[in-house]
């Protein structure tokens, strides 16, 4: 099996790291939701050696993630666990993980516009139930503001997403912030990222 490669991950890893270096400076255990190809996990774990980086995704993506982790000789990145937000066992997996070691950081990239809105809701419910107080949460991807696309390329991307799955699509930042508030998350900063993306930085207050 050839190791998968995402050009988008390659392009955005350094700008994202510039935020994570500060946000996760005192974090010890990060859970990544939707590790995808595994590129981010391999890169960020090497650049942030003081923490444990726990990968997760659907089972079908585990081989790809493992190929990237296989290349790391000594790694603080953990092999992927299955977190399927559509499945009944997703919350149990989070609970088991948080029972074994306090999760004080969460990262996800390019997931909220891929999954359906009910699963976005479940994503924040998982944060509410399983992340410790003062945990830092970083969410990367494109968002709409006041119901409008921030660029023509994002509008075209949204059309492409919906052609694949009508339940996907770029989310309104206002809706995301409402869910974040319900999960006891406080927005620290909305970072501008390349290619009309954002990185939302939160802290869990209770």
Structural class: alpha/beta
Largest sheet: 7 strands, mixed
Number of domains: 1
Work out the strand percent: 15-25%
CATH architectural type = 3-Layer(aba) Sandwich
Q: Roughly how much helix do the residues carry, as a percent range? A: 40-55%
The total count of helices amounts to: 7
Average pLDDT metric: 93
Question: Uncertain runs with pLDDT below 50, 5 residues or more?
Answer: none
Protein name: DUF938 domain-containing protein
Pfam families: DUF938
Describe the protein in words:
- The chain is an alpha/beta fold and 206 residues long.
- Helix content is 40%, strand content 24%.
- It has helices spanning 7-23, 39-47, 62-70, 90-100, 117-130, 152-164, 173-182, and strands at residues 29-33, 52-57, 77-82, 105-109, 136-141, 143-144, 171-172, 185-193, 197-204.
- The chain is built from seven helices and nine strands, in the order αβαβαβαβαββαβαββ.
- The longest helix is centred in the first third of the chain and has 17 residues, at 7-23.
- The protein has one domain: Vaccinia Virus protein VP39 (Rossmann fold).
- The chain has a seven-stranded mixed β-sheet, sandwiched between helices. Strands 6-7 form a two-stranded parallel ribbon.
